[in-house]
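Much of what follows relies on a compact textual record of a protein's fold. With that in mind, consider the following protein and its fold in token form.
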Amino acid sequence: MAEERRKYVQRRTPKPKNLKGTIKRVMSYVLSFRLQIVLVVFLILLSVVASVASAYFLKPLINDYITPLIGVKDPDYSGLLGQIGLMAAIYIIGAFSSFIYSRIMVSISTGVLCKIRMDLFAHLQKLPIRYYDTNSHGDIMSRFTNDTDTLRQMMSMTLPQLIQGIASIIFTAVVMLSLNVELSLVVFGMMIISMIAIVLVSKRSQRYFKEVQQAMGDLNGYGEEMIEGQRVIKVFNREEIIKEGFSEINARQANAGFQSQAATTIMMPMMANLSYITYALCAVLGASMTINNRLDIGTIASFLEYSRTFTRPITQISNQFNYIMSALAGAERVFDLLDTPEEVDEGNVTLVNANIDEEGNITEASKRTGKWAWKIPNKDGSFEYRELKGDVRFEHVTFGYEEKKIVLNDISLYAEPGQKIAFVGSTGAGKTTITNLINRFYDVPDGKIRYDGININRIKKNDLRRSLGMVLQDTNLFTGTVMDNIRFGNLEATDEECIKAAKLANADSFIRKLPHGYDTMLEGNGSNLSQGQRQLLSIARAAVADPPVLILDEATSSIDTRTEHLIEQGMDGLMHGRTVFVIAHRLSTVRNSNAIMVLEHGVIIERGTHESLIEEHGKYYQLYTGALELE
């Protein structure tokens, strides 16, 4: 298992992406707050100007106000105090500007984060089911949490420091050149050495930050999977095995984290030492110039302050470099998800509420009437209305989830309006795949599926799925009340309609015994309910939707035999007048079907009613008699 986990992790290592493109896309979000950005830039520049000006005041302060007072018996400090007061005012302006732009950047970063997460969530709703089948849910959630949070930190902290650092370097360089060109060249030379060091370190650490983000996603995915499977893990005593798998991914994340941090943390002492060397060189050369009367004391004091100020932004940038690289690595993963192709829907046939008179004439209704019609556009711009009856036909359908692995092979079948069609067969025979194709979770490469004579590829997916009610073997309940979960099938349903649906599914009796009845809060996918109770709520949710076509994918698999008998009458009432597709592992539940399809290796090997198939003494007979023996 450890070897398989290692191969799994290696397959998921992403290819390098274009950082310039990533930065451009990040800035497209940031620039949606243009007015705030303009104000932030102005305040940053004001803060930098205040910082640069305060250091420049050292020159007149020493030359014009301190030096003349040396040795004077009754010195006049008014000018000196005025100069100090002016410097204090400039410092206060700079500090206030820094405070304001920091607050604004927090607002911008949270706003950008909100927009990115909204885009991510909205995009996830448009992705095909295939994406969720092939990607870890934990890894997807990691992009919502870890990756976007590192991006927020970069925007709120690093971007302002970058702007401030660049502006500080430019303004300080101009003032230094005005003070002394020779000393300025010394500082510029040391800066070039610093930049070369930063570039060399960045090239080495960049790929490690990508590995850190990817490993974090793998950790989340693996952890979520193991937490959900704790019962199975404990039943089979596999605690040590899954610990090995986690340890392997955790070690990879730790190694990548060490390599990335080791590369970036050396920059801080490196830049600090270069700053000290620059300061010492300027001090020595400046002192020599002062002794030779080529430089006054005020200028050398001011320039030494600037030499420290000039290298400080570079040090700040180097200190923030790990945040930058981590954020860009996370941003790449976020944009990779946003760039995943959406589910294609080229359908133009829609589903509408309809009024149908005695002669069969159809008119579109603005409110729910209990009857539906397909609205089919014609080439001349007019529309044709066709009553939704629930006639579903497969015509020579061949399908595989992977190109070389065929799941359904030349399947042809039909379900006339009001018929109950059952699919039976061993696991992997292709039963659930048929219902997935009816919903267009996957598109058919070969063959056709017609719905009331319309190729389902022409029907808009939302309208197609709105006409279908589905009860899955794996139930999914959402955080909210019991009433909210039932109403999820039809958001316009009244409380009375939800209660009626619950009674139809025989869920009403157990719901009323809950602490707050229909107002009982459900959390953690209904963890405070039994599996059977959760399934009953799922059936009630389908009932309140009142769909013309119903798909039951082993809907009673989690319900005991007694409860199953109790809901059969309600299910019969729900299925009355509807086309129903049933997948059942209990063959006793499909005896009253109009037609039973027996699948094996993606092929329909038998079809007929319960009685006719029993008489044939074929595969169905073997399955049915075997099931009776087990009972």
